[in-house]
Structure formats: structure tokens, C-alpha cells
């Protein structure tokens, strides 16, 4: 029996920045198991902006790591020899 794996990915952002973000700062895949992972997706804010503004998205450093984690879960779920 294949166990569907789930993951919750949370942006590392400061609380005031998160409150200004209208969207949900996480990606969720439903499953039988929850695996938490933290990724630094944003750069620090520019000088003078303070903590109320998120920095730019780190496309190569941050987003690629999130995508790699999701792809890894897909590959684990599709291989019956890894999970019972």
C-alpha cells in the first residue's frame, strides 16, 4: 500500500511582512503524512524599507529549492520500492 506523502512549505518572513501579504505563504500537498520544511524564499528588504516589506524573491536560491522538494516527493510517491 502506497502512503501518500504531504509537505507544508513555509516562507521565512517576518511577521509584519506576512500580515501585509494577502495570500497564503505556504504550499500544501494533501496526504497521509505531514513533512514540514522551511525555505528562505525572499531576500532581506532593502535598507530603509524595514520589516514591513518583503525582499525580492530568490528565484535561483529559494524557489528552486521549493520546487526540488516537491519533485522529490512526487518521485518518492511514484516509486513503490521506497514506501510500502
TrEMBL record:
Look up the domain of life of the source: Eukaryota
Indicate the secretion signal residues.
1-22
Q: What's the main place this protein lives?
A: membrane
Q: Name one GO cellular component term.
A: membrane
The answer to whether the entry has keyword Lipid biosynthesis is no
Q: Which InterPro entries match?
A: GPCR_3 (IPR000337), mGluR (IPR050726), Peripla_BP_I (IPR028082)
**Which key words are in the record?**
Glycoprotein, Membrane, Receptor, Signal, Transmembrane, Transmembrane helix
Location within or outside the cell: Membrane
Mode of membrane association: Multi-pass membrane protein
Which terms in the Gene Ontology molecular function aspect does this entry carry? Answer: G protein-coupled receptor activity
Name the UniProt record assigns to this protein: Uncharacterized protein
Amino acid at each position: 500500500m502506497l502512503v501518500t506523502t504531504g509537505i507544508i512549505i513555509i516562507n521565512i518572513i517576518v511577521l509584519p511582512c506576512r500580515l501585509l501579504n494577502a495570500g497564503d505563504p505556504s504550499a500544501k500537498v494533501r496526504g497521509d503524512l505531514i513533512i514540514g520544511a522551511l525555505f528562505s524564499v525572499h531576500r532581506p528588504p532593502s535598507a530603509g524599507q524595514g520589516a514591513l516589506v518583503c525582499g525580492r524573491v530568490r528565484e535561483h536560491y529559494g524557489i528552486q529549492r521549493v520546487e526540488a522538494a516537491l519533485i522529490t516527493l512526487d518521485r518518492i510517491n511514484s516509486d513503490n520500492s521506497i514506501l510500502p
